[in-house]
Amino acid sequence: MEHRVLGRTGLRVSILGLGGFHLLEIPADEAVRLVDLYLDSGGNYLETAASYGDGESELKLGRVVRRRRDECILATKTGARDKEGCLKSLDNSLKNLHTDHVDLLFAHSVATDDDVSRILGPGGMVEGFLQAKREGKARFLAISVHGQPGTMIRALKEYPFDAAMSTLNYFDRCNFPELERDLIPLCIEKNTGLIAMKPLADGFLWRNVGLAMRYVWSLPGVAMIVAGANSREMLEEDISLAGAFAPMTGDEVSALLKDAEELGDYVCRQCDECPVCPRVPVKDIFRLEGYYDRQMRDGKPRTPPEFALRDRLRFWFQNREMARAGYARLGIDASKACDGCDGGCGPCRYGLDVPFKLRYAHYKLAGDVEAF
Ligand code: SF4
Ligand code: SF4
């Protein structure tokens, strides 16, 4: 399995990291067998969090770590935003993991500007990490953000985090265009180790696992994908994909973005060739729709399982209020924008019916059931 340098940490990580969340779903003995299989297969990065099962994931991983600490780069996360909470959480994690130090300690699931201010401010989590580092309990500081790229970018600009973990996949690139446009270049510029999570968009890309993983591994700056597994088959598939990885060519990426079933003729690719509309900022409205529900509800009939999957995932990042506030600030009624326009937008280059989608986006962003 290929190994890459994780930014300024200098650590050499396998391109497949093993996340500990899904170990909650299986008995401890099976979890131990999976972790051993992963390490035996050339993987070297184990990641968990204090909050996963209130320590249960750490306890399961700890059964392997106590035997194989020298073979792995170990990471855990704390949800504490203050110094004392961070130190307490880390001590508990070290006990659960049967080790005296972790390699990476994450500020976990940082969501808002207020979170960033608390972490970086006096008495904040970063002070806790720095004390832990002096005491030899943690080596590097990392941050994870779920679906709020602006928060991550602000945090990285204000503090030299060693590593950053973000959603990255070919579906959410359309919903959060800042991830590839701004976050990746920033990480490269600052030599922040970039760790990708959610390569399958929380399972939405289950039909195209191989392409989804290859896409993320091919992104510039990405050191590894952290993926969870709750079965031997799932882990073996990921290991096999990592072993066979070859970078996607530009043509392959273009074809994927054009033809991917999950994008279809509804999801806005946020491409650079969007025709300029004289009345409304089309791309901005569709970006807000991506923030709102990842453009997952598209007005098309679905089978009950597919509808249920979309319904479960569309508000995963809980950005609805942010998206609606952004739409209100535009001061536009997108449901009426195309009335009487002789611009006559046909399908755009990706087949999107732009006037229909503007009306549907308004329906979501304004909560306006009259729009349909
Ligand atoms: S051309 Fe279509 S896919 Fe591209 S930005 Fe415009 S609406 Fe979105
Ligand atoms: S039809 Fe709608 S989206 Fe197209 S140019 Fe006219 S107002 Fe703009």
Q: How is the topology of this model organized?
A:
Elements: E1 3-5, E2 12-14, E3 16-19, H1 28-40, E4 45-47, H2 56-68, E5 73-78, H3 83-97, E6 102-107, H4 113-120, H5 125-134, E7 138-145, H6 149-158, E8 163-167, H7 172-175, H8 178-190, E9 193-197, H9 209-218, E10 222-227, H10 232-243, H11 250-259, H12 282-293, H13 304-313, H14 320-330, H15 354-365
Parallel strand pairs: 3-4, 3-10, 4-5, 5-6, 6-7, 7-8, 8-9, 9-10
Antiparallel strand pairs: 1-2
Helix pairs in contact: 1-2, 3-5, 6-8, 12-14, 12-15
The structure holds iron/sulfur cluster (2 copies).
Characteristic key phrases:
globular; 13% strand; single chain; eight-stranded parallel beta barrel; TIM Barrel; two-stranded antiparallel ribbon; 372 residues; alpha/beta
